[in-house]
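Pipeline run #58 for the internal structure catalog. This entry was flagged by the ingest filter as a single-chain record with no existing model, so it goes straight to prediction. Upstream metadata was stripped on purpose; only the residue string is passed forward. Reviewer on rotation: M.T. Logging verbosity set to normal.
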Amino acid sequence: MEGSARVFAGEYQGATLTVPDRDPENPAWVVTPGGAWCRLLFLSGALTEVTDTGDVLRCRLADPTGAFDLVTGSHRSVVADVLQEIPVPSFVTVSGTAQCYQRNAGMVVTVRPDHVQPVDRQIRDAWVLETAEQTIARLEQLLCAINGTSMNERALVPVRHYALTMEQLHEQVAMVGRAVQSVQSVAPVPAAGIDTTGIDTRGIVMEIMRAERHPRGIAVEEIIEQAKAQGITPELTLAAIRALIEDDECYQPQKGYVKPL
């Protein structure tokens, strides 16, 4: 029985290769630059956008490395009904099918969701850690293929198609590291969140965000002004906002605005 692939958005969005299955009745594989062969996917992240365009429901699922585009029919679909009922933003898990196709001059990668389940931050973090382990294992196989010490066809195919180099592998390892840090930083408060006077800038910024109930969130400039009234410099406020975004505590629904997850 085929298992579901776990892959970070930062890797999946770079895919430009599809490989037909031996059984023509099955969907093609979407092969990523990180060596993931994707057909069935298991994802987790923050559902940050749900847009009904008429016949199609388009959603954004953000993980610490980027965002997946979820696309499904908007009518007479159980999964579409579930997506439209989940508050945005919310942490969810998604089981779905990988899709990659050409549009205009480029390739587009999306996910057709088959099942969506609201979860908590701990479940999302567990997914990040497991996905990180699987990604590193794939990158090790790609390294062997680049060095000529492996004839694993599933590693050789992406190495050839993407003309992978050691530098590109290092970039993907760094991406995985950033994703893991978003989990590890939950416990200790980063330096950007506390200034030399002991003020919990990060906590104050989150309180300011949560007090704003507008659907689009709160303007960064407004946070800076409110924090300044509590003795926090704009530099510390911006550093705290960046740290909160990196740790998936908040997101940017539009340019210049932030909103807590």
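catalog note: Helices lie at 9-12, 78-85, 121-147, 153-162, 166-184, 201-211, 220-228, 234-246.
catalog note: The two ends are 36 Å apart (CA to CA).
status: ready for reviewer M.T.
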